[in-house]
Amino acid sequence: MSTDVVEEPAFPRISVVIPTRNEAKNLSHVLPYLPSDIHEVILVDGHSIDGTIEEAQRLLPSIKIIQQSGKGKGNALKDGFAACTGDIIVMLDADGSADPTEIPNFVAALMQGNDFAKGSRFLKGGGSDDITFLRRMGNAGLSLFVNALFGTRFSDLCYGYNAFWKHCLDRVVIDCDGFEVETLLNLRMHKANYRIVEIPSFEFLRIHGQSNLNTFRDGWRVLRTIVTERSRLHIVIRQPVIGSFAGLERE
């Protein structure tokens, strides 16, 4: 649990960040099902050529469109996070695999005093129609490895449906480009001593198109991220307090 005292708003504004790349056919299964009380929806587009932006604007005229600065899911999320003006940030995939109606479950968990709510397909009430046997075994092995190294109890390390208070980004930096971003976020939230809770979530099959995820390439990137984070001293910059020395604390 973080030692920083942050007063959370009674009625937080919710920002939803959706990375896309050629997801025009899937957006009708996502955008219309977002809760009505969302503060803003930010679509970060990775140079789509199938009319993704136009379809998003047709379905949700108020949507904010950002052109991704680089490549990869991690880069898209970093760009999206920087553009958020809400109090809570929700990460949502655009392929129809994540259920937008689950967002209130994540928000409720944060309102109960948690800093980071991470989705899990492997808790009671969760599940997946999309994960292959090979990916399931790889995820389980990586989760066990992380739990042993970091003293965590993650049941699902590589799932992209997560929510957190925006102020967490004051102490957690996203500096990766690929699908390892979920693992990096999990580990850095833990290393920053934030209160983490897992939320049961159900993953559906991608509706149209093919995923850019490559089991072996991206699995290796996740493993490399784990080893790097374990070997690196994480520097936490504390906010200056009047009358005291503002320095660096190493965990």
TrEMBL record:
Domain Glycosyltransferase 2-like, first and last residues per copy: 15-137
Pfam families on file: Glycos_transf_2
Family matches, as InterPro entries: Glyco_trans_2-like, Glycosyltransferase_2, Nucleotide-diphossugar_trans
CDD domains (alphabetical): DPM_DPG-synthase_like (cd04179)
PANTHER family xrefs: RFBJ PROTEIN, UNDECAPRENYL-PHOSPHATE 4-DEOXY-4-FORMAMIDO-L-ARABINOSE TRANSFERASE-RELATED
Protein name: Glycosyltransferase 2-like domain-containing protein
Species the sequence originates in: Dictyobacter halimunensis
Source species taxonomy: Bacteria, Bacillati, Chloroflexota, Ktedonobacteria, Ktedonobacterales
